[in-house]
Amino acid sequence: MTIMRTLVGTALALLIVLTLALAGCRAGSGASASDDDSAAPPPGAVTMAVSVARVTVAPMRRDLRLLGTTVAARHLQLRAPSAGRVLGFNLQNGDRVRCGEVIAHVLNREVEAAANGLAVAERLDPSEAPALAQSVHRYSHTGGVAVVAPEDGIVSQRLVSTGQMVNDMDPLADLIDPKSVYVEAAVPIDDLASIHPGMNATVTSPMVPGAAIPARVAALSPSLSPNGATAPARLEFTAAQRISQTGAPVEVAVTIASVPDAIVIPTAALFADTDGAYHVFVAGADGRAHRTAITTGIRRGNLIQVTAGLAPGTLVITSGGYALADGLKIEATVAPPAVAPLTVAPQ
C-alpha cells in the first residue's frame, strides 16, 4: 500500500512538471511573435517624396494646322494702246508699278513710216522737206503713245521686249493686285466639320521668316479636291502685313477652340484609366495623396485644360507615376509652374 501511494505521487509530480514545461514553451513562443509585430511598421507609415504643381488659370486654344499656297484673286494686263513698236519697256518680273505710271511707249507705225519717208523726201525735194519734218515732229516728239499702268500691281510675267512690234491691245505684261493675294489651304475631310468661315488663323511662310501673319477663314469650297481627301479653304489676310507673292508655300494654324480663362494642370499630373477616363492625385492638407477623377479639354504643349474635378489653387502630384495610391502618405515639394507655348489669337 505504501509503495502504491509512492508511485501515484511520483506520477502526479511528473505530470505537473510536464504541464508547467509545456506552458512555458507556449509563453515563450507568444513573446517572440509579439516582438516581431512591434518591429514591423504600422500600415500607412511609408512616406513618399513627390513634386506637386498648383492648378492655375491660363488662356488655352486648339489649332488645326493646314498646308497651302498663296493665290491672287485679281490679275491685270498691260496692253498696247495702239499698233506699233514698243519703246522703253524695262519692266522685269517682280517689279512694282503704280497707278498712272508710264511704263513704256508705242511708236505708231504711221509715224514711224513718216519718219522713214522724211529721209527720202529730203533727197527728192529738199525745199519741201522742212515743212514735212515739222509735221512728223508734231506727232512723234513724245516718243509714241504712252503705256500707262491702270492700277497698282506687281509684274508676274513680262510678255514683250523693247523694239518688238505689237498690234493694238496686244498684252505687254501680266500684273497681279497684291491686295488680292489670299491663301488656299487644303483641309482634310476628317476636319471639315471643325472649321467654318470667320475663324481666326495665323499664316507662316519661308517667304516671311519669323512672322505670324493674322488671317481669317473666308470660305470653304463646296467641292472636294480631285483626290477626294481634302477640300480647299480660302483664308484672307486681316492686317497690313501680307504675302504679296503668289504660289508661296505656307502653313496655316486655324484656331478651332479658345478658352481665355481655362483651368489648367501640367500633363505630367494626368493619368489615363482603362475606360478612357482620366484622374489625378491631389496632395491633401492631411499629407496624403487623394485620387480624383477629372474631365479634360484643350491640350497644348505641356498643359492640359481641366473642365471638371479641380479648382484653381489645388495641388496636384506630378511625380511618382503608378507608385502613387489613394491614401498614400506623401511629402510634397512645389515645382515651378509649367508654361505652354501660347500666342495671342488675332482679332
Your description of this structure?
This protein folds into three domains: 47-60 and 260-334, Beta Barrel (conserved putative lor/sdh protein from methanococcus maripaludis s2 fold), CATH 2.40.420.20; 64-71 and 179-258, Beta Barrel (Elongation Factor Tu (Ef-tu), domain 3); 75-176, Beta Barrel (OB fold (Dihydrolipoamide Acetyltransferase, E2P)), CATH 2.40.50. It has 347 residues and is an alpha+beta fold. The protein contains three helices and 21 strands. It is 19% helix and 43% strand. The chain is rod-shaped, with a radius of gyration of 45 Å. A hairpin with a 5-residue loop joins strand 17 (278-283) and strand 18. The strands form four sheets. The protein has a six-stranded antiparallel barrel with strand order 2-11-14-13-12-15. A four-stranded antiparallel beta sheet has the order 3-10-8-5, with no helix packed on it. The longest helix has 38 residues, at 2-39.
β-strand number:
21
Helix/strand order, N-terminal first: HEEEEEEHHEEEEEEEEEEEEEEE
DSSP summary: helix tally: 3
Instruction: Characterize the overall form.
Output: rod-shaped
Count structural domains: 3
CATH-defined superfamily of the largest domain: RNA polymerase II/Efflux pump adaptor protein, barrel-sandwich hybrid domain
CATH class of the largest domain: Mainly Beta
Q: Could you tell me the CATH topology label of the largest domain.
A: OB fold (Dihydrolipoamide Acetyltransferase, E2P)
Structural class: alpha+beta
The main sheet orders its strands as 2-11-14-13-12-15
What does the main sheet amount to?
6 strands, antiparallel, barrel
Radius of gyration based on Cα positions: 45 Å
Beta-strand percentage range: 35-45%
- Rounded mean pLDDT is 81
Q: What is the helix fraction of residues, given as a range? A: 10-25%
Give the end-to-end Cα distance, rounded to a whole number of Å.
123 Å
Uncertain ranges: 20-41, 341-347
In the CATH hierarchy, what is the architecture of the largest domain at level 2? Beta Barrel
